[in-house]
Every structure is written in structure tokens, then in C-alpha cells.
Amino acid sequence: MNRDNDTWVAQLSSAGAEREVALTELRVVLFRNLRKALAGRPHVDNSFLEDAVQDALLRILDRLDQFQGRSRFVTWATSIAIRVALGELRRSRWKDVSLDSVLDDTDYAPTRAVDSSPSPELLVQQEALFHKLHELIETALTEKQRAALLAELRGMPQDEIARHLGSNRNALYKLTHDARKKLKSALQNAGYREDELELTY
Predict the structure, then answer these.
(1) Predicted confidence band at 98 (pLDDT cuts at 50, 70, 90)?
(2) pLDDT tens column, 64-80
(3) Cα–Cα distance measured from residue 3 to residue 87, given in angstroms and rounded to the nearest whole number
(4) Which listed residue, of 32, 57, 129, 153, carries a Cα 20 to 30 Å from 15's Cα?
């Protein structure tokens, strides 16, 4: 059945058989669109897609009042499903990785964040700044702040960091926000100017 935007919203907001039919058809559409969007990605099989679609449907139903009609309803719903699926893929990558193993990874080097294009003098200044930053991460932060910030820098999703720390996203945001403020203040006290700190913030 071809539905316009208003019909999708009305039927999914209703009760009874009409809603179930709309849900069934939307599930089929989302499964097909997700399979096409994620084709070739590792760990994406029918079971993964079915779980992602189910999670996406719950979010879509919860956010029906946020649909503003700027695109086709199916396009809007598919974008939610893709975000759900990609988020799950990111989390699954880190699922069996311990926070300790992330923090023990010594591969994070200041030169990764240094721009290699400037003059040799500026390059030396940048490297010195990042070495100082690493020193302060080790000495100026609490153990929990250090763990959260380094895990974030190394790409661990916030949901996984929060899970490892026995926390939640809001508390984690405050933890890393406070850590950055503390580092910025310590760098300024060490003599670095505001324009130099733009390299790190």
C-alpha cells in the first residue's frame, strides 16, 4: 500500500489492526533499505538487520511527533534505522574490549594530532604542546577522568565508556568536560596562550 506522510503517521499512531499492518510494512521497507545501505559491511547478517530494524521501530514510534514532513516518511524512518545500525556496529566492535586494554595502548602519539605542514619551528612547538598535554593527562586528572578522556580519544563509543565506568552518558559528558577544563587551565598556568591551545580544543 502506498501511503503519504500523514497516513503513515496516523496509522502508526492508531491502535489495532491498522497500526499492525503499517508496522509490518514499515518493517519490511526498513529491512530492505538497511540491507542495501550496509551491504558489504562485516558482521551484518539477517539476524543483525532484524534486531536493528526492531530497535529502530521502537525509536520511530517514540519520535512520531518529531516528524516534520520535510522529507518522505520512509526516508526519515530509514535514516533513524541506519543510525541505530551504525551505532550498534560501533558498539559491537568494542564489546569485548576492556577499558584497561584501551588505556594500555601506547600507540597514541602526539604526532598523530600534529599538523605536518607548518614550518619546522611551529612543528616543534606543536609537539612540545602535545607532550605537555600527555604529561598533564597523567598527573593532573583523576583516575576516572583520565580513563574516560583517553578512551574517548582512542575512539571508544561513549556508551561503552559509560558501561565500563558504571556510569551513564550525562555523567560521562560532565566527567570529560571537567577533565578538558582542568587540562586547559593547567596548560594556561604552564604558559601556553589561548591561540596555542586551539591546537588541542
Answers:
(1) low
(2) 999 998 899 999 999 99
(3) 29
(4) 32
Contact 3, 22 (CB under 8 A): yes
Number of domains in the chain: 2
pLDDT over 60 at 199, yes or no: no
Alpha-carbon span 24 to 82, nearest angstrom? 18
Last residue of a domain, one of 94, 116, 144: 94
- Alpha-carbon gap, residue 60 to 66, rounded angstroms: 9
Say whether both 81 and 111 belong to one domain.
Answer: no
Tell me: do 20 and 73 sit in the same domain: yes
Q: Which residue has the cell 525509536?
A: 59
State the CB neighbour count (10 A cutoff) for residue 161.
23
198/178 Cα distance (integer angstroms): 17
Q: Which residue has the cell 511527533?
A: 65
Rounded to two decimals, what is the model's pTM?
Answer: 0.53
CA separation for the pair 140, 137 (Å, rounded):
6
Q: Which domain holds residue 34?
A: 5-94
